[in-house]
Amino acid sequence: MAVRTVEKGEAAKKAIEESEKREGVLEVWHLDLQSYESVKQFAKKVQGLPRLDIMLENAGIATTVFRRAEEDESTITVNVVSTFLLALLVLPKLRETSTKFNTTPHLTIVSSGIHSSTSLPEKSSPNIFEKLNDEATADMEGRYPVSKLLEVFYCRELALRMKQDEKNDPNVVLNFVCPGLCHSELAREGSWSLYFLKLFLARTTEAGSRNFVWATQAGPESHGKYIGNCRFEDVSPFVQSAEGLETQKRVWDELSAKLEKIQPGIMANV
Q1: Short-list 100, 46, 98, CA closest to 220
Q2: Is 111 part of the annotated catalytic residue set?
Q3: Which one of 93, 148, 225, 258 is the catalytic residue?
Q4: Could you point out which of 76, 82, 111, 166 has its C-alpha 20 to 30 Å from the C-alpha of 68?
């Protein structure tokens, strides 16, 4: 388990071991997506594992407070930049596992259906990420949906560009999944509207986690697909539109350049 607060992670580990009556299965590793160095150190530790079959990236924040982490507003740093920094850093280990053990590992990014509530107003600017980092014009009420839309764009483009085997099948399956609105600490700094939505409509975290299990066990046909309610679902009409496809390529180019600057050579992992 990758956790920002190790003490909370150890408490969760203890609760799981007691409920399952099994010990020595879980390890708690520190990971703070607000820090590029923390991401790099975590990925380095991953390289020492004998194998990596599933990488499920579930960390995220929803806040209406503009604050910077590294070089971007914290929502963008955590939900987008560091999420894909980690994904591309562990991708070689996933491929190594595929080769050594004749299996198909999964890289699953936790996204959200709320991506459909925005068409990324910042796309009208010459540089999307620079505009998102402008505190004077930042729409923090709409920042979480924007971050999830950026995830969708990058996942779709990454899936198209990832290396495949001689049969044109992915040696690592990349998919992205929406757990639905769940009871969690996600909205602790979110808007009141999100708080009330959760109060009346949220499902249990256990119910939401079933989507994670489904996504990480889905076959090669799930590569590049969006998953919700334990089935394939359509991304938003905007994502599928001509303008959306053009924006997707812009997001790919801009974010890839940022990642290459953070970790030179990382794009060769694709």
Answers
A1: 98
A2: yes
A3: 148
A4: 111
